[in-house]
Amino acid sequence: MSERDRSGGTPATVDAGTRPPTGRGRMPALQWLLTPLLARHVARELVREHPLESVEQIGARMRADLGAHPDPAGLRLVEAVIRRLPAARAVATPHPVVTSPARGWRSPTALALIAANLLPLYGVLALGWDVFALVLLFWLENVVIGVFNVARMLCADPTDVALWLFKLFLVPFFCVHYGMFTAIHGVFVFSLFGSGRFESVTGGLWMLDAVVRAVRELDLGPACVALAASHAFSFGWNYLRGGEFRVASLQQLMGQPYGRVVVLHLAIIGGGFAVIALGSPVWALVVLLVLKIAFDLKAHLREHRPLRP
């Protein structure tokens, strides 16, 4: 039965407040796609500007800024930002970050990193590892870092549909680019420190046969597993449990491993040549290992400090 008024049979006027929602009242597709991107950026800035506030405090601050009659789009953005704040911020703390006993070098992941890097000390003292064994082990750690960086990129803000479109391009690109970078680096490790021991199984950039043989002959397996376990623990503890994946930037993740690899391994290669020049004494190998741990720990703390409460 059509709606008409009784007097003239013309269509009755429907009040605008009771009119059913139309396409205009729905979230535009572009806004729906861009909201997660903007929310990640806002969440990162809020973490840096208000490091001692909890999720509830930051949420209350943002809702108050919207006023008494907030716009629905603004409310959606606020909720999106809150969902992307690190979970570790759920409870506010009145103390500065540096006073927390679970932060800095005493954090679980930092202690695990130190413990894993001390295992090569046993190789130097008990198994007679030389410079090549240490440098090769640290190069293998670069491969592990690349694998977990791919995992970080894939897990970054998984609810953002638009971000997955970028991942389809950036993740394969990173695998090829970082893979070539690491392979060339490995060629230098074998040619500069391998003394020709594995030249028969090394062909161009194909390093797998030489690496497998070197790991077996030098007993690097347990140390490789320990370093991989340390990075896996950091990935689970900091990135997933700590909520870093909610505000991770795909562009920053793309370049993150390169800075560590270049700075650390330039120092290690330079130190390796110095150790060889000294005749590879045990004390020099220990000093090289300690320097590597110091570089590693500093890079680890710098990487995870911005997203910590």
Keywords summarizing the entry:
single chain, 309 residues, mainly alpha, disordered N terminus
Can you give the mean pLDDT? 77
Count of all domains = 2
Number of beta strands: 0
| Rg value | 27 Å
Q: Could you name the ranges where pLDDT drops below 50 across 5 or more consecutive residues?
A: 1-25, 88-102
User: Biggest sheet, in brief?
Assistant: none
N-to-C CA distance: 62 Å
Which of globular, elongated, flat, extended, rod-shaped describes the shape?
elongated
Please bin the fraction of helical residues. Answer: 55-70%
Which range does the strand content fall in? under 5%
- Broad structural category: mainly alpha
Task: Give the number of helices.
Answer: 10
Describe the oligomeric state of these chains in a short phrase: single chain
| Order of H and E elements | HHHHHHHHHH
Could you write a compact summary of the structure shown?
By secondary structure, this protein is mainly α. It is 66% helix and 0% strand.
Give an account of the 3D structure.
It is a single chain. With 309 residues, the chain is mainly α. It folds into 2 domains: 26-89, no CATH class; 102-304, no CATH class. It is 66% helix and 0% strand. The chain has 10 helices and no strands. Helix 1 (29-49) packs across helix 3 and helix 4 packs antiparallel against helix 10 (282-304).
Lay out the secondary structure.
Layout: H1 29-49, H2 55-66, H3 72-83, H4 108-126, H5 131-155, H6 161-193, H7 208-218, H8 221-241, H9 250-277, H10 282-304
Helix pairs in contact: 1-3, 2-3, 4-8, 4-10, 5-6, 5-8, 5-9, 6-9, 9-10
